[in-house]
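HUMAN:
Could you generate one sequence with tokenized structure?
ASSISTANT:
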Amino acid sequence: MNYTNTLLTWLREWYVWVAMLIIVSAIGIKIHNNMLPEASAIPGAVMPTPNARDTFNAAETLAKDSDKIGYAIEKPRTGPAPEGENVNDYKSAWHVFSLADKEQLVDENKPALDQLHQGLSEQYMNPPARSFEALFPYFAKDRGMARLLSLESQVDSAKQDWDGAATSGIDSIQLGSQIQHGSPMIGMLVGVACESIGRKAISNQGVLNHLSADEAKFDALRLAQITENENPYSQALQEDAWCGEAGLLQIFHTEDWRKELGSLGGQPAWNSSLVDLLRTNLTLSLVSPRDSYNRYKTYMDSIVAYSKLPWPAQLSTPEPKVPTSDPICAVLCPVFSQADFKYCANLTLDRLMETQFALRAYDLDHHGYPSSLDQLVPEYLPSVPLDPFSNNSTLNYHLNGNSYLLYSIGQDATDNRGTPIDNTAFFTASEPYELKNQDRISDPNMDINAKGDIVAGVNE
């Protein structure tokens, strides 16, 4: 009877049960929060021999005065310089680089250019990024080499070596295209910038209008080969995904992985407030490595699949949502729609330019433009270029007497009958039009929400 009374008394002490529940729950949470992700097969990459990456690195070590080259390719400001501005300083926006200055910069960089041209003839594969600590210092130097090619194009144009000027611009486009292979998002974005530099060099100097039929045809076919070998945007995303997966696996297998992850948000611990540190530690204390890794992988798999949809389908399909409730995914999973747009816009501009080269060659050979782009195939182009902003349709082309209109339907995926974004064509096959708009660059300042078509040719 005494035992029974004791048991009943103990049972009435409900807080004992609560304490036991808390202890059991804490043990369960501890076990759950320390469950490591299952091993995932993350592929490496087969590196070509020789690898153009190594050759480009060698070229970049030979480059000289890269800072000065960046200023030399820019158009100097006009009008009186502000008081105190030293126009003799090459860093001044009013400093004018003479042709002799530019020639000297190109001449002293001939060894670097020769090495770069060797790399352009080789296969490229970026070393796979499989850690959050992966660094890519060479990408900034790749952009510098694109600027050097742009300067070479300017010098050739000034000397009326139009074929050489076109070649240097296309070299920059090829460089930008090559460095995207095997690269994560940062490589894709730098590659797009290099291609833009090359197009600008060709467009701003009216190079196209001075080429012979054979020269224009050769350049059209070369550009077509470059765009055909362009690295898919989805592959850059996949490289980012593999880098993130490998990085998380590496961190989760360290003893103090929460501290490591706490630094991924961009603020070092010593620069954070006490409240922020407590919040971060409390949040990460509730994270399960396995669950967080699986959420990251699921999201990245879904965004890679989404990126493979045609652009119009992407506009009508909601983009996968970042699992922001997971503090790790909230940091590692940015929204990629802007990068996707930049990729499509870049490929569109390349294909418009290659078509203009082909039209130039056809016009010189046949004394008139074709009635259809199909007539460019196969002599001037291997196939009619597709419009990346369409649902697998070709670029739009309309012949009107002795002039033509060439355009992409643009990011709104709507055919506006050649009405350009901002009502301004950005480059053209017509020399008079080029002269009237000589301050325009080859790439318009397009916004992902802009309306209108990307008009590449209004021949007048």
